[in-house]
């Protein structure tokens, strides 16, 4: 059995590291066309084939509740960052597609945000990054690739 005290210390350290990096990178979204939440939605949509994804897939990748994602998506539709249509395979679901403006806004932020991520993660060497990836995937129940 895992040492409980060690598990608690490791969890706290992981949580604090993630939070501190998240806060440090929040500045990547200052004075940009999209918020951090909108970027997160667009990350899933823009990476999908034809820049189109199901709302449930976007919701599954987000760290906020489904009703919050739905409200965020509706605001993004109103801002012409996304289009939203009924899922032809499941009338209860929705299909999201990035508009040209949404894809452009995502790409503008993605460049600087990607650089920021690389700079913050540069504290670790490649072997440590591979180990971190493997460990976090294991914690998430994802088999490594």
TrEMBL record:
Domain HTH marR-type residue range list: 1-141
Record key words, sorted: DNA-binding, Transcription, Transcription regulation
Pfam families: MarR_2 (PF12802)
Record's keyword annotation contains rRNA-binding: no
Protein name per its UniProtKB record: MarR family transcriptional regulator
Organism this protein belongs to: Microbacterium bandirmense
Record keyword Ribonucleoprotein present: no
SUPFAM superfamilies found in the cross-reference section: Winged helix' DNA-binding domain
């Amino acid at each position: 059995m895992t040492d409980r005290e060690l598990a608690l210390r490791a969890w706290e350290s992981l949580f604090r590291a993630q939070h501190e990096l998240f806060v440090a990178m929040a500045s990547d979204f200052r004075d940009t066309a999209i918020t951090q939440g909108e970027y997160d939605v667009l990350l899933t949509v823009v990476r999908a084939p034809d820049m189109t994804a199901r709302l449930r897939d976007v919701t599954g990748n987000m760290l906020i509740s489904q009703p919050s994602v739905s409200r965020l998506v509706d605001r993004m539709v109103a801002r012409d960052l996304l289009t939203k249509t009924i899922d032809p395979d499941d009338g209860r679901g929705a299909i999201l597609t990035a508009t040209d403006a949404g894809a452009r806004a995502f790409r503008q932020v993605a460049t600087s945000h990607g650089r920021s991520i690389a700079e913050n993660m540069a504290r670790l060497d490649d072997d440590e990054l591979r180990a971190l990836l493997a460990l976090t995937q294991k914690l998430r129940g994802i088999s490594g690739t």
